[in-house]
Amino acid sequence: MASALNPVSLLRRSLSFSTPSSSVTRNLSWFRNPATTLSPAPATQPFLLLSHQLTRTICHASSINDEETAAKAAAATGDIGARTIFDKIIAKDIPSDIVYEDEKVIAFRDINPQAPTHILIIPKFRDGLTELGKAEARHSEILGHLLYAAKLVAEKEGIIDGFRVVVNSGPTACQSVYHLHLHVLGGRQMKWPPG
Asked: pTM to 2 decimals?
């Protein structure tokens, strides 16, 4: 039954062609170790490339759906003022890897990093600032301080020569915690456009 869910089996059936089992088996080792060379058999290489693309597409689509679902669920209760996971980190009720803290903000490592360095920076007091889209003139000082803290974190983490600051605002941007936060990403070459 497990083979029916195997992306390679699905691809073989959907393309309605067969290839010798030994070629498929030999070339599937590439998935476990991409540094190995593919078999030069021309019939199997397109098959293998397509199956690799299908696998990546399935995994990527699943990840996107999970993020979108989480964002929509979070948005439903985002503005009621309920305690968030970030409030628990600020209160030190749950552990986190804090890399910077001052009287206004706290910065800690993301538990699901999207880059070698991925730090979240949050204001210690929400003051109605659940997302950037809700910012008012009275929030100008904390917004500026968050960006300055991002620069300090980048220096401390050794990524000052190249880093990205991301703010997700609202469900269509996949914001999943309604407590304004900045993502500081670095340690690898960033691409453009970002998303």
From this structure: 0.66
User: Which own/partner pairs from 93-100 qualify as long-range (CB within 8 Å, at least 24 positions apart)?
Assistant: 99/153, 99/156, 99/157, 100/149, 100/152, 100/153, 100/156
Angle at alpha carbon of residue 116, lines to 179 and 148, rounded to 5°: 50
Of 118, 145, 179, 181, the active-site residue reads 181
CA 73 to centroid of chain Cα atoms:
17
The rounded distance, in Å, linking the Cα atoms of 186 and 153 is 11
Tell me: the pLDDT tens digits for 9-48? Answer: 333 333 333 334 433 333 333 333 444 444 444 444 444 4
Instruction: Judge whether 179 counts as a catalytic residue.
Output: no
